[in-house]
Here is the input.
Amino acid sequence: MRGMVVCPQPRAADVGAEVMERGGNAFDAAIATAFAQMVVDPFMCGLGGMGTLQYFDTRGAGHGMIDFHNRAGAKVSPGMWEADLAGRSEISGYTLFDDYRSELGYTAIMTPGTVAGFAETHRRLASWEWADLLAPAARLARQGYPLAAHVLDFWARPWAAGVPDGITRIKVSPACAEIYLRPGDRLPEVGEIICNPDMADTIETLARDGAGSFYTGALGARIAEDIGANGGFVTVEDLAGYRTRPGKPVFGEYRGLTVASNPPPGSGAILIQMLQILDNFDLAGLGHGSAASLHLIASAMALAHHDREQNLADPDFTTVDVDFLVSKKRAAEHAAVIRSAAPLPSTPPAPPSCTTHLSVRDETGNAVSVTHTLGTGSGVVTPGLGFVYNNSMKLADPIPGKPNSMMPGKARTTGMVPTMLLKDGEPVIIVGALGGSVIISAVLQTILNIVDFGMSPVEATAVPRIHCEGAGVHVEARVESSQVAGLQALGHKVFQSSHSYDPVMARAHVIARDDKGWRGGADPRSGGGIAIARC
Here is the structure.
């Protein structure tokens, strides 16, 4: 086996596996897969989005992160929306405005980072030419691809009060509606072929002229002109000045393994804190899915999410004490709270996100875990360019003076946690997920299922899952009634979903090594692709 790609989109995974079969490395495969994801899952990720990537390079570049978060445009001011805030949605915690200004349209857009992020990955790590890695995505966009069920589900599902539905989102701009709606404002059907020649042209321009064309070239000029002419906040100077943030992962420990995840404004430190809290307890002895083990997991989630709300922010603007968040001392303090049965703190629910992930490993041990996203998509497509922009302004706090208050050039915290667990200095688990702050819960439980409960990657992503930020424990329908009653007896308010495989629980994608070798697990809650590059 030359390598493996695991991600929600089977056809995109195929692209990455083919790259490795033809001699490319894991980093080549990750770039090619990511651009294919942007085509076939156009509201989960895209050229107008952001992300965070962890790499492990056996050839000398070492172990590092490339963060490419969206950043607020220069025309943003901290208190500009404070007076008009209508509250937050009851279920998801979205900022609500009567005109959807933070959710839809040009005012929802932050400066995109995705193209710069994958270009930096290419510069540091890839072995193939940039144009060759983008070519499969351009072909998919031009020739067409069958609409996946999970893409249609995102457009068609009921949303929380105050949050626009999928058709409203698509109809924000005529160019978007032209691509994704059929006559009579009808959504396309599952399996219907979607062609996007404008996006193919844009990707081919990036392939020919380089990623710089998106920020300082002809593409950048069109982007800035369109956003500026329609009341957006991103300027030509914002695009020209955009930079990725390369650096080191945040490290912790769990059951003797080294845990590496992403730095702020991502939530890697919070995932590590959860794991280190649970390192104080014998989960395996309590049994998977028992009320006792679920109580410990939910409590660790609630305590760590409270620290996330109080401490996590963009480190370019706010000092974030990462050492405190990942300290064994802080984990022990939280473990003591759990043992004392003291009331758990409650954190406002964070909005779910429209995100994707991919995990890659090649035969030489190179590895990538990358999560990238559009937020939930602004619905804006610049005429002739074919891609949807992010709506990350909905994640910025409209109230001044808070850790995540909006400010020009500032990134908002995210739930993204592309993660690796290492043994003897080598990755043995490569994992991440999609789905807003619930990403952290999905990755946490996937790790626990493998490390503590001895599950295969497929089992680890498929078994029933929970989520807790303190106000209550959300559980899937498959969690047994006796365990729900047990959680309630331990003082938890429990919300049980009617869905056995609830996509709200986020979707984890993992590659892990056990005594049978390397295996992959793709979350069955939506999509799910595992592609093996064979010799």
